[in-house]
Amino acid sequence: MLDNHQKNIATFIHLSTFSRFIIPFGNFIGPIVLWVANKEKSEFVDQHGKQAINFQISMLLYAIIIGTLSIPFFVFNLFSHFDFIDFNGFHDFHINIGKPSALLYIGGALGVVAVIAFIIELVLIVNASLKARDGAYYKYPFTINFLK
């Protein structure tokens, strides 16, 4: 039987991922500290802690992948439009920017995907914390299980 303390700890494990908006890497530090301190006391807390940490690691990997794919598109698009022959000193510097290339559209689309993924991540964290509050187990979608 789950008591309120176990439900609260599991809920705070999920909600502690929002500490990343205040503390760098708080989305890892908060859940790990709460999980390590309480995983031996409750199987319920242990499962929620593993899910929260696995989800945060998975989201970090997805963000790295999207970033490494989208940043080069913007950089290549930026440098493809420089007109280096027209550079006559700092008083007469011209950048000839023509119509956007397909690279810019691909990079922009990946940026939109990143924003949508961020919003979905926030919704999933809130959903997981509500399930934990109610005493139910929750499995994040799109998660790679590093901790089993």
Question: Your description of this structure?
Answer:
With 148 residues, this protein is mainly alpha-helical. It has helices spanning 4-15, 26-38, 43-80, 102-133. The two termini are 23 Å apart. It holds the Pfam family MamF_MmsF. InterPro entries: MamF_MmsF. It comes from Mariniflexile gromovii.
What's a quick, concise take on this entry?
The chain has helices at 4-15, 26-38, 43-80, 102-133. With 148 residues, it is mainly alpha-helical. It comes from Mariniflexile gromovii.
H/E series: HHHH
Shape, per Cα inertia axes = elongated
Low-confidence stretches: none
Number of separate strands: 0
Determine the number of helices (DSSP H or I, runs of at least 4 residues). 4
Structural class: mainly alpha
Average the pLDDT over all residues and give the rounded result: 84
Strand fraction? under 5%
Main β-sheet description: none
Percent in helix? 55-70%
Query: What does the radius of gyration come to?
Result: 22 Å
Main location: membrane
Keywords: Membrane, Transmembrane, Transmembrane helix
Pfam families: MamF_MmsF (PF09685)
Transmembrane segments: 12-38, 59-82, 102-126
